[in-house]
């Protein structure tokens, strides 16, 4: 049944609700999917070939039949929304199924099919559509559809673990996979989904189930520490898996991405497969609900999630915001896995779909790719998501507040993936050091449409190769707070970053940094109102969203010249420079350029045809100083140029004139700042920057440039007041920030630094500080090229100058230099009056914890994880720092703690619950495979002879 108007308006954001968009829940999600499919049918009908009387083969356009089949068999059909009568849609759909069923290679045709990459993905959709309309198909078409499902399962099984000879260079790399560049998770998933329709609709064929299990179980990869997992999936031991698809911090890569988004393919494939079994009435293979270590992959997705149900988009620019394709992983998890966190993310994404769909290009579901080839797939994925909701009730979603509280975590994924992430309740941030992607990506308030962070889009940090990386990921359970700190080395210097649990970021920049802003008119989408407003000390400016391609008109004092050129300064991050028109006053001339792509010669920018364009050669897309010049033929008075850009619009360029084509004079520059302000800048009331520099922050169109030096980014704050606060005074090559009370420190040099940092205020940090009339002098020791964050454990009211405070930890501080009377307030609110005599005095806050703990096991990843043996509870209960949780080993249970890196281990202590501890041994390993009693290890294993009645393990502590 169609949702009513109020629900539609709320879902599409046209109702103003507080806070944000109303989130679709329960059956409403399914209803939204149905309405979106109806509206998308207008696009689907553009794929219909009226001469051939079927949907097109190009880019598998005929896969729209799955969405059609759902609309024809479920819900209330609305021809006004769909743009086509139901009978006509039925006729088109059945004719297409009949034609392409007969034309499939596996049914004796020659038009398509059998090829694993990527025909089998669309075969899965096609078979599903046919099954939905099974009673209406003729006998020959039914037989052909059955031949497709059976034949594909037979063919895929016959390949064993080898490559498909029909698929060119595409390969899963056997059952090994790979974790650099392209993990092969998706490719293994293709092999599995090629088998699922046969298994679901026809039962077991020779070797089908075994092959399906092998490919499915290996998709997520096998960490070394899980080799001894006694669990079985579909009767096969987890330790039998062989794939190395993931980094040991549970990131997978694909298409050169810098983050974990692509590992959603694990549940995209599972959704495609599960719907066949559910619709056929067969039990789901266990691997679809018990993917080995799949939950650790999901953990990293949650650690990068936005408010739109989309994790950060790390991929190349043509894979950003493909909403229709990104629903199905969430739908699978929220329905089949009954995951309330996924249900929240799915509800968030579903609530934005109608607003997204109404944005030009209207009706499309994957529009920001710039290509229509993703649309049939997006329609099919949405149709499957609808069916999953129909076949399995979804979990009740958690609240948005609970979602981001539960998802909050810091993870250093390592120098190879080059990703240090911090998800907090207020924002997401990630320091990215993967070559070609260097940036400090930031999503204030998890706003998916505020700052551009995808692909190679620059953000704050220099777009240079990082040659050295020193990072710290602070965790609340061990350190008492969440934060990250990094010190990065470049060929020309250093940069530092810090992310705080408040959502604030801090960066120490060697050069000015750039931030690009999304600015669209997308009715109903929070923040996308058609303009962005920037406010600073120098005033306020509103920048309107561009409609269509950018057009620059630049005027300058009249000058006489024969040649006029555009000289690039900063190209489009991906595509370089491309112009539809380069017009010099009203004059015409002959164009030349530094380079050109075949078919996009410089003359195309001056031929008067608005549809033709010049573009730099592909090899020069990254070159900054590309140029295009117009020879006017004779000396001419010029004072204006008009440049109409394609997507590859210059971020910055100069207009130059010349009498001879050899000597050039700059007469105009782009961009001209819309706003230049010192100190602080508010961005549309959603976020802002404070720059500790005399140089200005500038707004130029949809780009912000912050000055070199120390820059802080805030989610919601009084920026004017923050900018007016005195900044720390530091030794040479040190930068410091007291943003949100935390002390962020950066040593931007190759030498250790010892000295004093003068801090404003009365906060006390771990270490030694002495009070002054205006604050404290903090005794600094900071190793070369390092950064760190210190929490404000205490504040002291009315403490006179000259008092020295040594903060030992988050519970204990020693004072000297009295006499004095003052009040000490702990960060958690505990207040103690302090009377200090001539002798030193140590004050302990009994209710507080002595952070940081030196326990190497606290908060670490434990194994087994996602698939636990019978009788075993989660081993993470032994490293969570809580006294009311414990690990129950189960019969002869064994757990492993991954310390994250090799560490010298001085001792391991175990605390058991009341009762008799089971027989147990503790061993260590460097590689997760061979265990012994060595002093240096990354993995610590506890093996037990546990039986019912034995105690459970309350905690594992590992110390140097």
From TrEMBL:
Residues 1-24 form the signal peptide. Pfam families: F5_F8_type_C (PF00754). Transmembrane segments: none annotated. Residues 570-669 form the F5/8 type C domain. Coiled coil: none annotated. Gene3D superfamilies: Galactose-binding domain-like. InterPro entries: FA58C, Galactose-bd-like_sf. SUPFAM superfamilies: Galactose-binding domain-like. Residues 156-178, 591-612 are annotated as: Disordered. It comes from the Bacteria. The keyword Signal applies. Keywords: Signal. This is F5/8 type C domain-containing protein. It comes from Lentzea jiangxiensis.
């Amino acid at each position: 049944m169609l949702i009513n108007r109020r629900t539609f308006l709320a879902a599409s954001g046209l109702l103003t609700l507080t806070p944000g968009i109303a989130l679709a829940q329960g059956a409403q999600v399914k209803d939204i999917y149905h309405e979106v499919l109806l509206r998308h049918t207008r696009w689907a009908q553009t794929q219909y070939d009226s001469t051939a009387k079927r949907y097109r083969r190009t880019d598998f356009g005929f896969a729209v039949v799955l969405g059609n089949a759902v609309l024809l068999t479920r819900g209330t059909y609305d021809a006004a929304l769909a743009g086509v009568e139901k009978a006509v849609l039925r006729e088109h759909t059945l004719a297409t199924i009949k034609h392409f069923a007969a034309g499939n290679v596996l049914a004796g045709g020659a038009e398509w099919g059998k090829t694993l990459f990527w025909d089998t993905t669309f075969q899965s959709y096609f078979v599903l559509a046919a099954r939905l309309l099974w009673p209406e198909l003729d006998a020959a078409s039914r037989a052909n559809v059955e031949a497709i499902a059976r034949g594909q399962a037979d063919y895929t099984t016959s390949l064993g673990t080898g490559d498909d000879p029909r698929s060119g260079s595409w390969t899963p790399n056997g059952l090994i996979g790979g974790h650099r560049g392209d993990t092969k998770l998706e490719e293994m998933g293709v092999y599995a989904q090629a088998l699922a329709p046969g298994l679901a609709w026809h039962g077991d064929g020779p070797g089908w189930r075994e092959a399906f299990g092998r490919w499915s179980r290996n998709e997520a990869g096998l960490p070394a520490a899980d080799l001894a997992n006694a669990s079985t999936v579909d009767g096969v031991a987890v330790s039998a898996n062989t794939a190395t698809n993931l980094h040991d911090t549970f990131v997978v890569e694909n298409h050169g991405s810098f983050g974990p988004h692509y590992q959603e393919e694990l549940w995209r494939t599972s959704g495609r497969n599960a719907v066949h079994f559910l619709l056929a009435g067969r039990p789901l293979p266990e691997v679809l609900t018990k993917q080995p270590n799949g939950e650790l992959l999901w953990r990293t997705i949650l650690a990068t999630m936005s408010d739109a149900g989309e994790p950060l988009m790390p991929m190349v620019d043509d894979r950003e915001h493909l909403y229709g394709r990104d629903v199905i992983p969430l739908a699978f998890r929220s329905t089949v896995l009954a995951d309330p966190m996924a249900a929240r993310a799915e509800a968030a994404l579903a609530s934005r779909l109608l607003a997204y769909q109404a944005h030009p290009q209207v009706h499309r579901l994957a529009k920001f790719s710039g290509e229509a080839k993703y649309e049939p797939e997006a329609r099919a994925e949405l149709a499957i998501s609808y069916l999953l909701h129909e076949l399995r009730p979804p979990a009740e979603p958690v609240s948005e507040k609970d979602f981001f509280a539960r998802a909050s975590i810091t993870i250093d994924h390592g120098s190879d993936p080059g990703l240090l992430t911090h998800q907090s309740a207020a924002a997401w941030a990630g320091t990215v050091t993967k070559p070609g992607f260097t940036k400090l990506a930031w999503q204030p308030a998890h706003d998916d449409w505020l700052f551009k962070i995808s692909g190679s889009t620059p953000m704050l940090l220099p777009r240079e190769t990082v040659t050295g990386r020193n990072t710290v990921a602070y965790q609340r359970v061990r350190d008492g707070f969440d934060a990250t700190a990094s010190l990065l080395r470049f060929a020309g210097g250093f940069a530092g970053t810090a992310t705080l649990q408040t959502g604030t970021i801090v960066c120490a920049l060697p050069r000015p940094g750039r931030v690009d802003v999304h600015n669209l008119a997308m009715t109903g989408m929070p923040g996308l109102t058609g303009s962005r407003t920037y406010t600073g000390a120098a005033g306020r400016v509103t920048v309107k969203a561009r409609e269509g391609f950018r057009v620059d008109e630049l005027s300058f004092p009249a000058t006489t010249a024969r040649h006029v050129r555009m000289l690039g300064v900063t190209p489009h991050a991906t595509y370089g420079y491309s112009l539809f028109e380069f017009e010099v006053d009203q004059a015409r001339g002959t164009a030349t350029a530094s380079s050109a792509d075949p078919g996009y010669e410089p003359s195309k920018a001056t031929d008067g045809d608005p549809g033709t364009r010049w573009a730099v050669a592909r090899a020069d897309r990254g070159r900054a100083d590309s140029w295009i010049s117009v020879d006017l033929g004779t000396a001419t008075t010029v004072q204006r140029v008009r440049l109409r850009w394609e997507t590859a619009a210059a971020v910055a360029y100069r207009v130059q004139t010349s009498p001879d084509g050899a000597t050039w004079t700059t007469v105009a520059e782009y961009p001209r700042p819309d706003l230049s302000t010192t100190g602080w800048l508010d961005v549309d009331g959603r976020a802002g920057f404070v720059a500790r520099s005399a140089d200005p922050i500038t707004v130029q169109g949809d780009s912000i440039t912050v000055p070199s030096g120390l820059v802080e980014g805030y989610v919601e704050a009084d920026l004017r007041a923050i900018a007016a606060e005195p900044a720390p005074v530091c030794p040479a090559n040190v930068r410091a920030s007291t943003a949100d009370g935390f002390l962020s420190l950066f040593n931007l040099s190759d030498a250790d630094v010892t000295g004093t940092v003068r801090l404003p205020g009365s906060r006390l940090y771990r270490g030694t500080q002495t009070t002054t009339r205006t604050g404290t002098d903090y005794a600094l020791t900071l190793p070369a090229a390092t950064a760190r964050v210190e929490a404000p454990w205490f504040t002291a009211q009315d403490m006179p100058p000259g008092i020295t405070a040594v903060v030992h930890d988050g519970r204990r501080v020693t004072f000297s230099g009295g006499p004095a009377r003052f009040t000490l307030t702990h960060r958690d609110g505990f207040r103690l009056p302090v009377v200090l005599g001539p002798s030193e005095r140590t004050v302990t806050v009994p209710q507080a914890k002595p952070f940081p703990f030196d326990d190497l096991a606290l908060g670490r990843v434990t194994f087994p994880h996602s698939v636990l043996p019978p009788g075993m509870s989660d081993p993470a209960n032994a490293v969570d720092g809580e006294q009311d949780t414990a690990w129950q080993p189960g019969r002869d249970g064994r757990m492993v703690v991954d310390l994250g890196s090799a560490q010298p281990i001085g001792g391991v202590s175990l605390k058991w619950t009341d009762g008799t501890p089971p027989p147990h041994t503790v061993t260590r390993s460097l590689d997760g495979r061979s265990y012994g009693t060595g002093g240096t290890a990354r993995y610590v294993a506890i093996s037990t002879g546990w039986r019912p009645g034995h105690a459970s393990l309350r905690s594992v502590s590992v110390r140097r």
